[in-house]
Write a structure and sequence with these properties.
single chain; about 425 residues; alpha+beta; Aminopeptidase; Alpha-Beta Plaits; 2 domains; 9-stranded mixed sheet; 6-stranded antiparallel sheet; 12 helices; 21 strands; elongated; disordered N terminus
Length: about 425
């Protein structure tokens, strides 16, 4: 590796200030609320944009109101290298999910500038809108819109907490919902040289292994029955014999139990798979301690690196529901599953990242990502893409995320070294 590839040092003091500002501006109660296309996400974009302006970066926003912060390269016509992640959060989330990737990009670019490096091509830090599905029941909104790929009907989806549409919120955030609806793109495969996303790990692998960084091999896709229902009949818990019951809870439990057993068998056979029932509830206006529940609402979430495995589990869920219905005298209504494609990340970029980490004396392991990320959209468009996971305690999507700043610094040192080497000529 050229000596110049490891010379620039990221600005970790800048990173600390940005994390502090994000926490102060977007904390609500115990957790962080950076609502997609809402005040919280906008505050985060304002913080990042101000830091970029202070660094002298070029700043642009287009139809979807993503934020592009660019260190100009020697050849402005060459495809750009993009570093970034999202700045929105789930309700009552943590301070590092998504934001760590944007802060890392700004910290690395600051290091390049301080070292006097002018990259061969533009290096853009991208703060992406609306990655989380919690607000508009759709993932990767900002990334899909940037490539002109957002389904027009998504713009008419009401936000989960206020009923106002994505188009309304996007317009209020300075976007052009009409242009997004027409599929007008800012990014294209031909204009992006590569994409790198740093992100906290949202599980326990790195903490358990005592390793600060993970090199991500692929990102699991998801097939999710988001609004599943089981319809039975309400009845008295003491007066209704079993043979007459239409117990929606018992039927749904049977379905979930059998799918869990199938997961165990597939895992034993070597398949990559997770299965989760993230929501399961009855109607509080109708249920009661002495009533048989006449309806359940629930979610079935299947994730895998293999789309074939997810398809098989989708079909299995449908078949099991049909089998269980007559046994419990109920009717399942699973609905159409929401889909996000799995993605394999670029092995060449990953190998070079590994070399930079080794040269810096930073231990890494290779691992798959169980959660979805914007990098999957870039990768599935054929853009060479990579992800670095940063060790983080207590998982994610909760206020207790606990990324250590030293682990973050190690990851950004690898990123800065990689950017310097990749754009040297």
């Amino acid at each position: 590796m050229p000596e110049s590839a490891v010379r620039p040092q990221p600005d970790i003091a800048l990173a600390r200030r940005l994390f502090d500002a994000l926490a102060m501006r977007t904390r609500s109660g115990r957790g962080i609320v950076r609502d997609s296309y809402g005040p919280g996400e906008q505050a985060a974009h304002d913080i990042a944009g101000t830091a970029a302006a202070d660094l002298g970066l070029e700043i642009a926003r287009y139809a979807a109101a993503n934020l592009y912060m660019t260190l100009p390269g020697r050849d402005r016509t060459a495809p750009a290298l993009i570093v970034g992640s999202h700045l929105d959060s789930v309700p009552q989330g943590g301070n590092y999910d998504g934001a760590a990737g944007v802060v890392a990009g700004l910290s690395a670019v600051a290091g390049l500038r301080q070292a006097g490096i002018v990259p061969a091509c533009d290096v853009t830090v991208m703060a992406i809108r609306a990655e989380e599905a919690a607000w508009f029941d759709a993932s990767y909104i900002g990334t899909h819109a940037a490539f002109g790929l957002l389904a027009p009907e998504v713009l008419d989806v009401p936000r989960s907490d206020n009923g106002r549409t994505l188009a309304e919120h996007m317009t209020e955030a300075g976007g052009d919902a009409a242009a997004v609806r027409r599929g007008i793109a800012h990014l294209s495969r031909e204009r992006v040289r590569g994409f790198v996303e740093l992100h906290i790990e949202q599980g326990p692998v790195l903490v358990g292994g005592g390793v600060p960084l993970g090199l991500v091999t692929g990102i699991r896709g998801c097939r999710r029955f988001r609004n599943a229902r089981c319809h039975g009949a309400y009845a008295h818990s003491g007066a209704e014999p079993r043979a007459f019951r239409r117990d929606a809870v018992a039927a749904t439990v049977a379905l979930v139990h059998q799918l869990n057993e199938d997961w165990v068998r597939r895992e034993a056979a070597g398949d990559d798979l997770t299965f989760t029932t993230g929501e399961f509830f009855t109607d509080r206006a109708l249920h009661g301690p002495s009533k048989i529940a006449g309806e359940t609402r629930f979610v079935l979430d299947f994730r895998s690196i293999s789309d074939d495995v997810m398809l098989r589990m989708r079909d299995r869920a449908i078949a099991l529901a049909r089998e269980i219905e007559p046994r419990f005298r109920v009717r399942f209504e699973l609905g159409t599953p929401i889909y996000s494609a799995p993605a394999l990340l670029d092995p060449g970029v990953r190998a070079r990242m590994k070399d930079h980490a080794a040269a810096l004396g930073i231990p890494t392991i290779e691992m798959a990502s169980g959660a979805g990320h914007d990098a999957s959209v870039f990768a599935n468009l054929g853009i060479p893409s990579a992800m670095l996971f940063i060790r983080n305690a207590h998982g994610s999507h909760n206020p207790d995320e606990a990324m250590d700043i030293d682990d973050f610094a190690a990851a950004v040192r690898v990123l800065t070294s990689y950017l310097a080497a990749e754009t040297a000529s």
